[in-house]
Structures are given as structure tokens and as C-alpha cells.
Amino acid sequence: MATPRVLVASDLDRTLIYSSAALALTMPDARAPRLLCVEVHESRPLSYMTETAGALLGELGDTAVFVPTTTRTRKQYQRINLPGPAPKYAICANGGHLLVDGVSDPEWHARVTARLAGECAPLAEVREHLATTADPLWVRKHRVAEDLFAYLVVERELLPEEWVKELAVWAENRGWTVSLQGRKIYAVPKPLTKSAAMYEVARRTGAAVTLAAGDSLLDADLLLAADRGWRPGHGELAEADWTAPAITALPERGVAAGERILREFLHACADGGTGQV
Whole-angstrom Cα distance, residue 187 to residue 184? Predict the structure, then answer.
């Protein structure tokens, strides 16, 4: 079997899949797209894509090495049931776990944890800082993901903007980065990257071209590492008007952006990822 030439590494939440709050169905109800539920949590539907996007994703899985690439933990990722062929590879915990046929590669995880231990402040220090500075008035949950990074679930309308800025500076000085996504504030070690895991999958599959998409600050390294990348018209990157030479900023927002991103992936795969017709 010929080695696939193109690898597609895409963020999931608010890039390919959307909660009901993030759908951004701004069109008249009668013109709203049919939706496909791709995630159920505690017996309730949680995440969606359009039915058209589902068909496009199935086509993409037959065309390229499709690699779901997420900050979600393995358990959170495994709730998702995407259309199309089951991906052989998936990147979870922002690159901390590389799944191969659904199982974390122990050698990869060991390499990641060794690098974190040598290059940035320990998780315990970050957790303590969050616990002592975050106000219970607007914090709903303190969480640790895979013993790799921490995040808070907050009441966004009560969250002080100045606190987020101060946290970002504090984290920067300790080798960590901060990302605000919806109702979650992530504190993630800088060496914990989606791009490093993408490079590893490209090496293993022999992919000559890499394509990527994402909406948040935690996706920036992935987009910069890929040969071509796309970001939707919503999210942290859009709010910052972030761009780079090989990045296309799409105007679509919400679930329509997910459909557009999949079309862009398929068009790029058709031309070998070069951008040339």
C-alpha cells in the first residue's frame, strides 16, 4: 500500500466539532444546516458538526492521514465518535499522549515527561498558584489533565481580565503558557506541544506534506509547524488577528467554519498540499 503523502492534523473543539453554545447558527431557522451529534457525555448530546462536514471528514479519512489533535485528555477524546475511518493516530493532552490504534505510546509519553521535568516549573507549583490566586466567586472547578497541565472552569462574565493577564506573565516566567477558551483557562507547559507530536506522526507515516487547523493559542505552534494552516473566524487567534505567511484566516464562524476547514483540507489534498492547482 502506498504511503499517504499528506498528513492532516486538526484541532477538534471549536475547529471541527462544536458544543451547542458554540454553533453560531446565525441564519434563519429554516436555513440552518442539519447537525450530526459526534459526542455524548453523561447520556446527553454534547458536540456536533454539520452532516455535510461529517461526509467531508469521511472523504478526508480516505484521502490523507487524518490525525485528531486535541488538548483533551484521552478519556475526553474517547467520548468523540467521528464519521469516517477510525484514525490510526490521535494526539491528546496537547501532545502529551500519542495514541496508536487508541493506545498511548509509552515511549513518546516518557520522552515528553522527561522534557517537561527539565525545562519548566513543576505542575505542583502552578496548581498552588491557581489555588491561591483564583477567586472562588468566579471559579467553578479546578482540574488537572493527565498529570501534565492544569485548567480552571470559570464563570466567564465574572472573570477579571487583569487576573488573566497577570497569570500569563507569571506563567511565562516559569516556562508555561496560558490560554482562555470559552469557560476554561488552561495553564500548559511550553514544551508540551501539538506540533512535536505531529512531527512524530509525520515521521512514522512518511508524510511529505502537513496541513493543520485550529482556533486557540494552544494551536498556534501546530499551525506554524504545518506546511499550510487554517483558522476559523472565531476563537483566541481570530480575536488577536493572528496570522502567518502559510496561514489562511477564514471568515466563517461556528459550525460553518468546521465545514469550510474540511473543504479546504480536501482541496489541499487534491493538489498535494502545495497550494498549486
Answer: 10
pTM of the predicted protein model: 0.93
User: 181-204: string of b/e by CB count within 10 Å (b at 16+)?
Assistant: beebbbbbbebbbbbbbbbbbbee
The answer to whether 159 and 167 are in contact (CB under 8 A) is: no
Q: How far apart, in whole angstroms, are the C-alpha atoms of residue 41 and residue 82?
A: 14
Angle at 232 between CA 168 and CA 190, to 5 degrees: 30
How would you classify residue 254: left for phi > 0, otherwise alpha for psi between -120 and 50, otherwise beta?
left
Q: How far is CA 247 from the centre of its chain?
A: 16
Q: Cα–Cα–Cα angle for 85, 252, 87, nearest 5°?
A: 15
Contacts of 209 (CB under 8 A, 6+ apart): 5, 6, 7, 227, 228, 272, 273, 274
Mean pLDDT of 110-136: 97
Q: Enter the C-alpha cell of residue 91.
A: 494526539
DSSP codes joined into one string, 214-263: --SGGGHHHHHHSSEEEE-SSSHHHHTT---TTEEE----THHHHHHHHH
Q: Are 62 and 70 in contact (CB under 8 A)?
A: no
Q: What percentage of the chain has pLDDT greater than the value 90?
A: 94
Place of cell 496560558: 178
In contact, 273 and 211? CB cutoff 8 Å: yes
Write out pLDDT tens, residues 199-216: 999 999 999 999 999 999
Half-sphere exposure of 24 (CA within 13 A, CB side): 18
- Cβ atoms 64, 7 nearer than 8 A: yes
Task: Give residue 274's pLDDT.
Answer: 57
Adjacent-strand bridge partners of 98: 91
